[in-house]
Amino acid sequence: MTLPILELAGLRKSFGELEILTGIDLKVTKGELAFVIGPSGSGKSTMLRCCNLLERPTSGAVMLEGRNIAASGVRLDPVRRRIGMVFQSFNLYPHLDALGNVSLALRKSLKLPRAEAAERAAAALERVGLAERARHHPAQLSGGQQQRVAIARAMALEPAVMLFDEPTSALDPELVGEVLAVMRELREAGMTMVVVSHEMRFAREAADRVIFMDQGAIVEQGTAEEIFGAPKSSRLQAFLARQAA
Amino acid sequence: MDFSDAFLNATVLQKYAPSILSGVWVTLYLSAIIVVAGTALGLILACIRACGWKAVNFVIIVYADILRALPPLVLILIAYFGLPGVGVLWSSNLVLFIVLTLILAAFAEEIFWAGITSVGKGQWEASRSTGLGFAQTLFWVVLPQGVRMGLPPLTNRAIAVTKMTALGSVIGVPDILNQATTAQSFSGNASPLTLAALAYVALFLPFVLLARWLETRFAWKRT
Amino acid sequence: MEQIAQQFFNLDIMKASFPMLMEGLKITFLLVLVVVPLGLMGGLVAAIASGAKSRWIRWPAYAFVDFFRSMPPLVLLIAVYAGLPFAGIRLDPFAAVALAFLLNNSAYYGEVYRAGIEAVSPGQTEAARSTGLSAPQTMAYVVLPQAVRNVLPDLVSNTVEVVKLTSLASVVSLSEMVYQADMARSVTYNASPIVLAAGVYLVLLWPVVRLISRHGRKIAS
C-alpha cells in the first residue's frame, strides 16, 4: 500500500450559508491520473482550488505527502511550489514572454540563479513543444500555445502533483488536441495529476480513475470502464445521458 | 503702438533673458524632484493600500481625497503663511516642493490603485499557485501591469501638477513666471512675459506630446 | 497643539471672516457658471476640429490644444491680464480670467471630447450617414451623445479641476473666495480664514471626488 501523495479528508467548504463541498474524501496515489467529472456547480473546481489552498476549506484536511497543509501556521508558498495548477483561462502574465512566465517563480520563489532558471524554463518549454516560442508574449500566442506555456510554468517547478481546472474549456475545438497531447505525455512520464474536465474521450483513454461529483460530494468513482460502461447511481446515469445528447 | 516693440523688444529680451533662464532652472529642477518624489510616494501608498489594512486604507483614502479636492493655491497659502506661526520656517521653494509633491502623490496613488485593481484575480491566483508570496506577486506580476495601465493618466497628471510650480511666484519662488513678472514691471514692457510663455511651452510641450503618444499605444491585448 | 489650533483653526477669526468668504464664494460661483459652459463649448469646437478631414483644420486644432496644455494656467492668466494692455486691450479681472480660462479649458475639455469621439465605432457614423443624415447631424445626434456618455467621468473630473483653478483669479485681484480669505489672513496674521476656505472647497468638491473614484473602480472591475 503506497502512501497517497494527495489526500482530502472530510473536506468541507461553504460560502456564507451556501455549502459547496459537503465532505470530500479522496486519495490520489503517485503516478495516478484522477479525472473528475460532474455537472457545473457540483463543486469540482472548488475542490481543486482547496487542494492548493487558493480556497481555504471550512473544515477538513488536505494532506500533501503525509502533511496537513490546511492546518493553521503552514507556510503556503513552499507548499504551493509542490502543487502545480493549470487554469481554465491560462492566466499567463501578459507583460512577460513565455520564458519569463515559466522562469519567474523559479527565480523569485525557488531562488535559482537567472541562468539556471532560464535553462530549466527553456527545458520545460521544450517539453510542451514551444522551444521556438520562448520569446513570444502571450498576446502573440494561440490559446492552445498559451495553455501549453501555462502547463510548462507549473511543470518547471517539478511539483509532486498537478491540478488541471478545465484546461481545455476556453479553447477553440481545433486547439484542444495539442493541450491534451501534452497532458498525455506528462502522464506517461509519471506525473500525478488531478484533472477537472469535460473531455470524456480523454478520460476514457487516459484516466486511471474517474470520480463523479454532484452537489458537493463524490457520488461514485471507479475505472473509466466502470464509470462510463456501468454507472451505478441514477445521478451519474442521468449526467452521462445528458453528456451523450 | 508697435506690436513687436511691446512683445518682442530685442533690447528688453536681451537684458532679461539671463534672469528668465535662471527661472527656467528653478522650474526645471523643482518639476523634476516633484515628479520623482510624488510618483514614488503615490506608488508606495498604493502598495500599502493593496495590503488591505482597513484603518490604514481609510487614512490613505481620506488623504488622497482631500488633496485632490483642494485647490493647490489654497494649500500653498496655508503652508506658507500658516506654518511660520507654529514655528516651522520653510523656504518658499521647500513649501512649493512639499505641497505639490503631496498633491501629485494623492493623484498618483489613485492612478496606481486603479491599475492594481484592474489586474484580474486570475493573475494573483496563477502567481500564488507557483509559490510566489503576496509581496512578490504584487511586485513582479501585478505592478508591472498596473503601472503600465496608469502611465498615460499619470503623465497627464504629472504635467498638470508640475505646471503648478508657476504658483510658486505668488510666494516668491524665483521661477520663470516670477522672473518674468519682475522683469516686466521693471522694463514696462511685455516682452519678458512672451519669453516666459515660450519657455513654458518649450519645457512642457515635449511631455504633452509624450502623453499623447502613450495614450495611443498603451493598451495591450489581455489574455 | 494649542499653537496649531490657534494658527489654523481659530474659530473666532473664522467666524469673523465667514461673511467675507461668502461674498467671495458668490464670485467663485459666478466664475464657475461662466467659465465651465465656455470651456465646454470651446472644447467641443476644438475636438470637432481635431477630427476634421482637412489637415488645414486638424493641425491648427492640435497645435491650439497642445500649446495651451503646455502653458501653466497662471502664466496664461497673467499674460492676458498684464500682457494684453501693451497691445491696447485692457480687460477687467473678470474678463481676463474668463478669456484665459476659455483658452485653457477649451484645450483640456477638447482632449476629453476627442477621446470620447474616437471611442465611438466608425460603424455608427456609417449607419447614420447611410440613413441620409448629414455629417453635422450625424455628429450631433449619433456620435456626440455616445461620446459624452463614454467620457462623462472625465468631463466631471475636469470640471472639478476648473473649479479649483478659479482660485487663481485671486492673483489678479478678482475678489473670489481665496482672495477674500487671503485678505482676511493678511489682516489677522492668521491662516484660519484660508483653512476655512479650504473647508468650503472640501464641502463642495469632496463628494464629487469620491464619486469619480468609485466610478473609476467600477470601470476597472
From TrEMBL, chain A:
GO terms assigned for molecular function: ABC-type amino acid transporter activity; ATP binding; ATP hydrolysis activity
Topology within the bilayer: Peripheral membrane protein
Primary localization: membrane
Domain ABC transporter: 6-240
Alphabetized UniProt keyword annotations: Amino-acid transport, ATP-binding, Cell membrane, Membrane, Nucleotide-binding, Transport
GO cellular component: plasma membrane
One Pfam short name: ABC_tran
Signal sequence range: none
Lipid metabolism as UniProt keyword: no
InterPro entries given in the database record: AAA+_ATPase, ABC_ATPase_HisP-typ, ABC_transporter-like_ATP-bd, ABC_transporter-like_CS, MetN_ABC_transporter-like, P-loop_NTPase
PROSITE patterns according to UniProt: ABC_TRANSPORTER_1, ABC_TRANSPORTER_2
Annotated compartments: Cell membrane
UniProt KW Nucleotide-binding keyword: yes
PANTHER family: AMINO ACID IMPORT ATP-BINDING PROTEIN, GLUTAMATE_ASPARTATE IMPORT ATP-BINDING PROTEIN GLTL
UniProt family annotation: Belongs to the ABC transporter superfamily.
Protein name according to UniProt: Amino acid ABC transporter ATP-binding protein, PAAT family
UniProtKB/TrEMBL annotation, chain B:
SUPFAM superfamilies for the chain: MetI-like
Protein origin, superkingdom: Bacteria
Keywords: Amino-acid transport, Cell membrane, Membrane, Transmembrane, Transmembrane helix, Transport
GO cellular component terms listed in the entry, alphabetical order: ATP-binding cassette (ABC) transporter complex
Compartments in which it is found: Cell inner membrane; Cell membrane
Residue ranges crossing the lipid bilayer per the database entry: 20-46, 58-82, 88-108, 193-214
GO biological process, one term: amino acid transport
GO molecular function: transmembrane transporter activity
InterPro entries in alphabetical order: AA_ABC_transptr_permease_3TM, ArtM/GltK/GlnP/TcyL/YhdX-like, MetI-like, MetI-like_sf
Keyword Transmembrane helix appears in the UniProt entry: yes
Pfam families (alphabetical): BPD_transp_1 (PF00528)
Gene3D superfamilies noted in UniProt: MetI-like
Membrane topology: Multi-pass membrane protein
Domain ABC transmembrane type-1, first and last residues per copy: 24-211
Family: Belongs to the binding-protein-dependent transport system permease family. HisMQ subfamily.
NCBIfam families: HEQRo_perm_3TM
The protein's name in its UniProt record: Amino acid ABC transporter membrane protein 1, PAAT family
UniProtKB/TrEMBL annotation, chain C:
Pfam family, one: BPD_transp_1
Topology in membrane: Multi-pass membrane protein
Annotated compartments: Cell inner membrane; Cell membrane
Key words of the record: Cell membrane, Membrane, Transmembrane, Transmembrane helix, Transport
InterPro entries: AA_ABC_transptr_permease_3TM, ArtM/GltK/GlnP/TcyL/YhdX-like, MetI-like, MetI-like_sf
GO biological process: amino acid transport
Gene Ontology cellular-component annotations: ATP-binding cassette (ABC) transporter complex
SUPFAM superfamilies to which the protein is assigned, alphabetical: MetI-like
Superkingdom classification of source: Bacteria
Signal peptide start and end residues: none
A GO term for molecular function: transmembrane transporter activity
Transmembrane regions: 27-49, 61-84, 187-209
Residue ranges constituting the ABC transmembrane type-1 domain according to the UniProt record: 25-213
Similarity remark: Belongs to the binding-protein-dependent transport system permease family. HisMQ subfamily.
PANTHER family: BLR6398 PROTEIN, MEMBRANE COMPONENT OF AMINO ACID ABC TRANSPORTER
Protein name, entry field: Amino acid ABC transporter membrane protein 2, PAAT family
Lineage of origin: Bacteria, Pseudomonadati, Pseudomonadota, Alphaproteobacteria, Rhodobacterales
